[in-house]
Fold these 2 entries.
Entry 1:
Amino acid sequence: MLIKTLFALAVLVASSSPTWAQQASSEYPTKPIRIVAPSAAGGGFDLVARVLGSKLSEQMGQQFVVENRSGGGTLAGTQLIAKAPADGYHLIVGGLSNMALNAGLYKNPGYDPMTDFIPLRIVVSHSYTLVGRKELPFNNMKDMLTYAKANPGKLNFGTSGPGTGQFILASLIKGLGNVDIQLVPYKGAQPVYMDLLGGRVDLFFDNTTTTRTYLESNQLKAFAVSSRQRAPDGPQIPTLMETGTMDLEMETWFGLFAPAKTPSAIVEKLRLEIDKAMQSADVRKKLQQGSGRIVQMNNAETESMLKSEANKWPRLLKNAGIVQE
């Protein structure tokens, strides 16, 4: 009798679980959702968090609250969400930096991007443009590398600190180009531009959108873009691969991620809502910021892309001589 009773209870629990999951997802969200941007205010992580958060709040009837958690590059905020409850109320903006580069920059980043997170959607990608002082005695990548080899230690690159795309690209130019150039760390991009215009620093690999103002006003000159294709708003600037100097491409991409054990019904609901948000012309325009590329991929394509990036960058950074901290 006891065995029959226990069996009946087991069947009841098993049969009711899908119903409970469906009910939970249909009611979700019932309280505000936190989106962590693992950086200070401003920049790509913050932009994606606020643009998507605002639209999702409008669509889903609950506030998506953006929380900036900088520290250790993008480590602090990413570690926080890796350990957060997997209930759909704790999300993070994932990007090239925290989901691919950190594994090659740190011996123990404190999380595994492939096992600790579920990608909801990658929504936008931005290239970088290498710019330099107008007075530099060269106008293309080949001549720049020739000059650097002939004048070891003379050229310097402004960077926005370890872990940033600016730092990685400058380090790769130095390592893959086999040249002796000085990397000068700054706290943000604006101080670099002040010194570029003032003649105190020579080169800077920065977000393509940000460089446009200085190029259009003829204050700086451009040498290459880091993406596979030329930027739509700068078709005259060659890609790194087109310059023939190195087989290198890099785009900084961003999207929303959830902790790995978030219920599948909630994951799918969030994906549908993000897809709906991305149909808005206003959302797309804000995310593009002039030179951004809107990304549209299904689940399998997203997972394949993330796996490729997570495998590629640690290996490439090691080959370029970048030592893990």
Entry 2:
Amino acid sequence: MNSFKALLLGATILIFSNILFCQVNTTSFEFEYDNTKYNGAIESPNQKARGMIVIVPGHGPTDFVVGAEYSELRSFFKRNGFAVCFWDKTGCGKSEGTYNHNQSIVSSAEEAIAALSRIKDLNIQGSDQIGLWGISRAGWICPLIIERDSSIAFWISVSGTDQFENSRYMLEANLRVEGRSEAEIDLLLGEWDHYQKVLVNGGESLEQFLTSIQNLMKDPYFNPNDFQFTEEIFESIQHAYQNSDTKYSDTTNLAIMVDNFENKLSKIAIPVLAVFGEKDSQVDWKSTLKLYRNTIGVHPKANLTVKTFPNGNHTIQKCDSGGINENLEKFGYAVCEGYYESMLRWLNKLPLNSN
């Protein structure tokens, strides 16, 4: 056989073997939560599954089952021997109901617990070693799942959250990205603090309120569409805040997203990988990291591992500024180098013994 034919045959075998290795078997499943049917799928690798990774997404509609959301991540996990499980939120894909952007954290966790119960009934290979991969908002959801389901084997937290909602941090980080001076940022943040205080607690007329936040309302980042308060809107927003079950910080008036969040994190007794982009302009990653180290990090059975990416944004994509409005086209919308590999190295160290 000449060298060209040998090379061609070798390449053909390699391509064919890669196709076999990456081949997946998909199992559709449905579960019910809150009188609504949800549609999901489990993608299993062709080889024996080492475990199963359940994707817990952040804010926004999903397109997992019909579309290809997180397809690159899913393929990566499957290539490395993990089954991957996901389902679409209400009103998305083939799930019933109407999408609810304001679904509570507790409700999202209970939805996931219902899904996990159904997944275990299917007895698919890898389901005896289930781990969670969650991003952003999932940083609040996953600890609630772990608290309720003692069978969860590990947690990969990507761009995780501290106990507070992140609107103030987003404003400050993105004003800085947009080029505001520190004096302008201080002024606008002061007005935002007043804005939040009045909406949560009341105490001012609309005229007084608008006078106090006039610079904030003129800022093109905070109010790009020139939204204007009316008396009706002002009163309805205050009514919604003051009649909500949500608790707010006495000092910052930020919503406390999970009650006793520090306590819940402190009880986590499984391996946790925390991944952050150091240019995240949506979540205060330094605050979360400190919180994780003071809670998960001191539990003898938790085994906290942290990986940060200096040029990573909220979704661990390559970036310059990390701002919400940054165009990532020049980076090809690529994830940071080493992101997937760092997860795999960590997973390879886990004592996963799937039957």
